[in-house]
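Support reply, case 0932

Customer input (verbatim):
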Amino acid sequence: MARKSVIANMFGRSPVKPLQQHMAMVLECARLVPDLFQAMAEDDRERLIEIKEKIFEREEAADKLKNELRSHLPKSLFMPIDRRDLLEVLQMQDSIADTAQDIAGLLEERPMELPIALKDPLIALSVRCVDTCELSNRIINELDELLEVGFSGREVTRVEKMLAELNKLEDETDVMGLQLTRTLFEHEDEMKPVSVMMWYRLIEWVGDLADYAEKVGDRLRLLIAR
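Our regenerated output:
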């Protein structure tokens, strides 16, 4: 406990808690993405718009916290984490919320039918991408413990195992995304060309949720390496 007081006196308000709070808000955005596609599959446009509004609200809240954290970060060297490293983690987290917002916005702006062939694999992909974001969130929640032990010891070993699992999950979403894209192209003759293009974009964006979650972990891995 005494050590924490010394750190607090040296560095002032720690940026770690706000960073973790931001990731929690970002995760709330990602968690709603599978619900968007479920509402679409059920042809429940009212529900889809309701979910979209929730995503936009949470993304706005995450943006406010992001800007507050950026504004109040000390510019001195007396921080437990390098300022640039922390900002990079923050940016990757923010990209998850932005991507969820992009998906929700497109689904509202351009009403489309969810092809039967895409329904189950698309929802499965979105759920697995959320799983990746969930794990990224758990890893970020270990950051204060890592600082406590000076990025060394058993805690580091445990986090490194979590990071390896994060990479495996993201690889899995890559495979699922490729399979889904193949399914899309197998059925493209049944859809309008513009719809094919929109679905291709949406599949990419869903995969980006996991990609940015992995990048959050990659930035943390660099912190451990230093």
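We compared this against your earlier run and they match. Two observations from our side: The chain has one domain: 14-225. The longest helix spans residues 154-186. Please reopen the case if you see a mismatch on your end.
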